[in-house]
User: What shape does this take?
Amino acid sequence: MRHGSLFSGIGGFDLAAEWMGWENVFHCEWNEFGQKVLQYYWPNAISYDNIKETDFTIHRGRIDILTGGFPCQPYSAAGKRKGKEDERHLWPEMLRAIREIQPRWIVGENVYGLVNWSGGLVFDEIQADLEAEGYEVQPVILPACAVNAPHRRDRVWFVAYANGSGQTDNCGTNIEKEGEIRRNKESNVSGKLRSNGDASNAKRNGLEHGTKPRELCQSQRETRERIAGYAKAEGWTRFPTQSPICGGDDGLPTELDGITFSKWRAESIKGYGNAIVPRVAYEIFKAIEAI
Assistant: This one.
């Protein structure tokens, strides 16, 4: 499977694709810190920055799965919820990329607040847009604690399948163009990626295949009790006075936890806050590959 990511951040989707054994063909991220992380761990992938200025047509018909956690700030309860009036409303740019790339599968992600912003206007619009492009769409709400992460973190995931449409191989020179872009990239030293373990203990080696994620959290009280239980079991002694959320807990590179340079330390914290939990994406990816 060939994977491309948009709004890539520090590579949550790319890491899950790596666990699947898929090829990370390209990523697209404008943030300088995110770019450094992505280029360090995936130096052979094509690296794009500003999605508004990127032409993705060289990848048309050659990407099996396109992912993107398009910016959540316009819909998040933690922000002003300006929605489509916010300059960070970038779903239209992701839709343009989808039209240019025509992937077989799409996995989009955003905050739970997208579901009820303006009566679900954008939530419905995204599904209508994808259906208009010939995709079958299924949105699902999945929290991070469903894969045993020590926090709830509800997110809406859009899983869409082209069902054979838009997959004509009409760009015979695309592979050559991709190779040319790669040859023009500066060389980087590849880092060592974290193993694909349970999100509650990312230091485990390997993955317990065939096991099912624990049941989804049903209430705030139950959620808090379960998270507290995970925290105690896994040794997070400062929970809940200090959040246990960090790279090691959520499957992301622990090297980002130890950054002391003030600018990049702030960027690493922001990167964690904006990142998806890779193990959730991994469960979606396993279902896609099974299909």
User: Anything to note?
Assistant: The chain has one domain: 1-291. The mean pLDDT is 75.
